[in-house]
Design brief:
By secondary structure, the protein is of the alpha/beta class. It has two domains: about 120 residues, no CATH class; about 110 residues. Helices cover about 55% and strands about 15% of the residues. The chain has nine helices and eight strands. It has a six-stranded mixed beta sheet, with helices on both faces. Strand 1 and strand 2 form a beta hairpin. Helix 4 packs across helix 8 and helix 8 crosses helix 9. The longest helix has about 60 residues.
Length: about 300
């Protein structure tokens, strides 16, 4: 398979002449995974958002978004880690309102012309009235888009995840805080909490697996034997109903504990992903800050002094 022109390595001899040494195959460039039109739409929307809100970070899934000035960018961990694909390319942006200072997460899906406000990720960082004002502004700026508010889910344990994260570090500290070292230590604690939650879920899961089978077997034997002796007095139909109810109730109880273990595992994974996401944002903020410092006059002067000292 041809990959285009192949560069030729030249070898220079002692007399200054050159001779052909070998050819080197050019590695083909990676195929683009992002549609340019979707990328342009995201960039335009996020740039327009800058008129009334500051974009603090962008999480992209199968998109590349170029912004000026640059902001921390990272992959969308929630969807990159899913077991299946088929999710439409999208970009989620953490934005801070210029007037109120409230934080929001906006999820932009350009192919579907849809903007969503995710409440769980910014719990207690904005008010309902502020969210209503934001929706009104978005509808004025982008009338061609549809809008949806993703509220907190009790089934997924959104509030518990948010409380576990906020007990160690807040989203505001990660996005706009100036004490990077303190935030990094808080993220280490958050990762530890997530790891402990995952271990607790393993203990609960294995406990249910170990106990359920033998317990149901013994209970089933006792129930059917004990109630079977009462069949002449209570009647066959009543005894059969009681046997089914007791064994079914015991099975439902262990099913509940098993689902709780799975639920705790899901929440532990989400806590860990939040810690990983916050860590990536913090690392990007540090990188961008170092680059700005290096470009500043003081930074250039420091670089010149270091070069002189090195010489």
């Amino acid at each position: 398979m041809s990959h285009g022109p192949q560069p030729i390595l030249m070898r220079t001899t002692a007399d200054g002449s050159s001779s052909k040494q070998a050819t080197v195959d050019v590695v083909p460039s990676a195929e683009p995974v992002a549609d340019s039109e979707n990328c342009d739409i995201c960039a335009q929307v996020l740039t327009t958002l800058g008129t009334f809100a500051a974009v603090r970070a962008v999480k992209a899934y199968r998109l590349r978004v170029e912004l000026t000035p640059p902001v921390p960018q990272l992959p969308c961990l929630d969807h990159e880690a899913m077991l299946h694909e088929g999710i439409a390319p999208h970009a989620a942006a953490y934005v801070e309102d210029h007037e109120s200072g409230e934080l929001y997460e906006l999820v932009l899906t350009p192919s579907k012309r849809r903007i969503e406000i995710d409440v769980a990720s910014t719990l207690r960082e904005h008010s309902q009235s502020g969210r209503a004002r934001l929706l009104e502004r978005l509808r004025e700026q982008f009338p061609e888009f549809s809008y949806r508010v993703n509220k907190v889910s009790w089934l997924r344990g959104d509030r518990r995840v948010a409380r576990a994260c906020r007990a160690q570090v807040t989203l505001r500290e990660v996005l706009v805080g100036s004490d990077f070292d303190r935030t990094a230590r808080a993220l280490d604690r958050l990762r530890t909490v997530g790891a402990l939650m995952e271990k607790e879920s393993r203990v609960a899961s294995w406990s249910v697996r170990t106990v359920t089978g033998p317990f149901l077997a013994v209970m089933g034997f006792l129930v059917y034997q004990g109630l079977g002796e009462l069949a002449p007095e209570l009647g066959e139909g009543t005894v059969t109903l009681l046997q089914a109810v007791l064994v079914g109730a015991a099975g439902a109880l262990f099913l509940y504990f098993g689902l709780k273990a799975v639920h705790l595992t899901e929440m532990a994974n989400r806590v860990w992903k939040r810690a990983a996401e916050f860590g990536l944002i913090l690392a990007e903020r540090r990188r961008l800050g170092d680059r700005e410092t290096a470009r500043s006059p003081a930074g250039e002067q420091d670089n010149k002094e270091r070069q002189v000292d090195h010489v």
